[in-house]
Amino acid sequence: MVHTDQKQDYYVFVGTYSLADTQGIHVLRFQGSEGKLSKVSGIAGVDNPSYLAVDAARNILYAVSENGSGEGAVVSYHFDPESGELTELNRQLTQGDYPCFISVNEAGDYLLTVNYMSGSVCVYPIQGQGMIGSMTGQIQHIGRSIHSERQEAPHPHAIVQIPGTNFWIVPDLGNDTLYVYKLDTHNGKLHLQTKVQSEPGSGPRHVTFHPTEALVYIINELSSAVSVYRYNTKDGALFHMQSISTLADDFKGVSTCADIHISACGRFLYGSNRGHDSITVFRILDDGQLVSLGYAPTMGKTPRNFSLVDESDFMLVANQDSDNISIFQLSETGIPVSTNQMLEVMKPVCLKVIPI
């Protein structure tokens, strides 16, 4: 996996929990040849810009404003690839509480988000130059599950497009359901295709796809497990294959999962454990199922989000409660090895990486 001649540099966009009067979104530079992070710019003006999406082809960055009392919002920015500066374009309310995830479709003409606390899924058209249009569709989830505090109501936690299709997966942590919607790009509406119940109390959270096979991997926040599904590209149907723990058998503490990513080669899968404060590593077998390879401490507390730096064999980990982003190099065995380098950032919770 190691490419010692790799000289590519990258921009790293960082979302945080912060107040509007502070720089909540940071732009960093990652030097692929040296494995170092440095600060480039930042922008204030938004409360809790926790999750981000990048349309690199159009130089547009999108962020949620994770607020309650119906004040959740989505915000668009123009990104100058030469200077690294961000300029706000516009924002729209999500008509719900605490939007926690945002995606732009492959065509770059629709933006989708989920309101975690109020349990809804939202669709917006993207207009000229990255401006977000008025909401065209909203779907309200219902139901609950067995965890009395975390699953008292629906809590959709992500919305991700199945590659090469117009289907979108929404894992709902609150009611233990995986929803598959089809996006009507003529009217800006989502239509339910199918839904699958996950194990009670599992709390499905984030999603990643195999680079070449019709396989999707779901990380379950509450049960600390990864579930493997095969999907049908024609109708979006999901077929469960395996669930496997992200924690060692002898771990006795409290831990919850957060983020999940797969290597570009399709050989390794990674997930973050908050509490155990580690990256769990799996080998992906030929049939798509997983075998645990071990764990790497994240050099910080509460690894909410992490990113694989494509083609440079580095991993960046956002440790929310120790206010740092730690840097790892990926070994030939797939295990992240700390470089003992990190950058201080207050409450980093999302990392998005694009080549410069």
Task: Describe the protein's architecture and organization.
This protein is mostly beta strands and 356 residues long. The protein has a domain at 248-356: YVTN repeat-like/Quinoprotein amine dehydrogenase (Methylamine Dehydrogenase, Chain H). The protein has strands spanning 9-16, 25-31, 36-43, 52-55, 60-65, 73-79, 86-93, 99-104, 110-115, 120-125, 137-140, 160-161, 167-172, 177-184, 189-197, 204-209, 215-220, 225-231, 238-245, 256-262, 268-274, 278-284, 290-297, 303-309, 314-319, 324-330, 336-344, 348-355. The strands form 7 sheets. Strands 3-2-1-28 form a 4-stranded antiparallel beta sheet, with no helix packed on it. The two termini are 21 Å apart. The model has no long low-confidence stretch (mean pLDDT 96).
Brief summary of the model shown:
The protein is mainly beta.
Helix-strand blueprint:
Blueprint: E1 9-16, E2 25-31, E3 36-43, E4 52-55, E5 60-65, E6 73-79, E7 86-93, E8 99-104, E9 110-115, E10 120-125, E11 137-140, E12 160-161, E13 167-172, E14 177-184, E15 189-197, E16 204-209, E17 215-220, E18 225-231, E19 238-245, E20 256-262, E21 268-274, E22 278-284, E23 290-297, E24 303-309, E25 314-319, E26 324-330, E27 336-344, E28 348-355
Antiparallel strand pairs: 1-2, 1-28, 2-3, 4-5, 5-6, 6-7, 8-9, 9-10, 10-11, 12-13, 13-14, 14-15, 16-17, 17-18, 18-19, 20-21, 21-22, 22-23, 24-25, 25-26, 26-27
